[in-house]
Each structure stands twice: as structure tokens, then as C-alpha cells.
Design goal:
Helix content is about 10%, strand content about 40%. By secondary structure, the chain is mainly β. The protein has one domain: Elongation Factor Tu (Ef-tu), domain 3 (Beta Barrel). The strands form two sheets. Strands 1, 2, 5, 6, 7, 8 and 9 form a seven-stranded mixed beta sheet that branches. It starts with a strand and ends with a strand.
Length: about 120
């Protein structure tokens, strides 16, 4: 399994960090009374998002890591958990691929949506 490249920032920027618990449950409407809810899995990914600021060389590394090493973002990789700092298996949420904006001629902000795998 691939690891997050050492030459890239090792944390998402705290000002951009957002997280939430994975659902692992389902809610169904019924004809009368309160909706029915039940757990469908104990193994739901923990979602998080954040941004990293990269220079040109780091952007090339990130692009190659995402497109080639992770097969357009579908393969998981190891990185540290964004809160605990422990090693974790993480993957990109490919339904919302990373996006980039230029901060200057040589700096780029990459926004990412990721999942910590159970």
C-alpha cells in the first residue's frame, strides 16, 4: 500500500479542517409514526476534508501520487489520522475529487475530501 509522500505537507491546514462521523445507518419513512432507523454497518469510514498549500514541485508530486500511484484516487494509502496522529488507512472521496486554486505564481491550495477507513 502506498504512503503519503514525505515531501508533501504532513497535516491539512487547521483553518480548513472539517470532519464528521460516517453514517453506518439507514433511515426509512413509514406511512404512520416516526421514521424507522437502524444500523447497517459497524465499519463506516470517518470523513474529513481540508486543504494543503503546495509549491510547484510539491504540486507535481501530489498530482503524480493521486493520478498514478493511487490510480486516479481510488486506491487507499497510509497517512496519519488528522486528529489522533496515529497511522491510518485513508482514501480520497472520488465522488468529490481534489480541487486546486492558485495563491500566487508559485503557490497552490489543494482542497481534498478524504475518508479514514475502519
Amino acid at each position: 500500500m502506498a504512503s503519503w509522500p514525505d515531501s508533501l505537507p504532513q497535516n491539512v491546514e487547521i483553518s480548513s479542517f472539517n470532519t464528521g462521523f460516517g453514517s453506518g445507518s439507514i433511515r426509512s419513512s413509514v406511512s404512520m409514526g416516526p421514521a424507522f432507523q437502524r444500523r447497517i454497518s459497524t465499519a463506516s469510514p470517518e470523513k474529513f476534508s481540508g486543504s494543503i498549500t503546495l509549491n510547484r514541485a510539491q504540486y507535481v508530486t501530489f498530482r503524480d501520487f493521486y493520478k498514478t500511484t493511487l490510480a486516479q484516487g481510488v486506491l487507499p494509502f497510509t497517512w496519519k489520522h488528522p486528529i489522533t496522529g496515529d497511522s491510518a488507512v485513508i482514501r480520497f472521496d472520488v465522488s468529490n475529487a481534489p480541487s486546486m486554486s492558485a495563491l500566487s505564481n508559485d503557490l497552490f491550495k489543494v482542497s481534498m475530501n478524504l475518508e479514514v477507513m475502519p
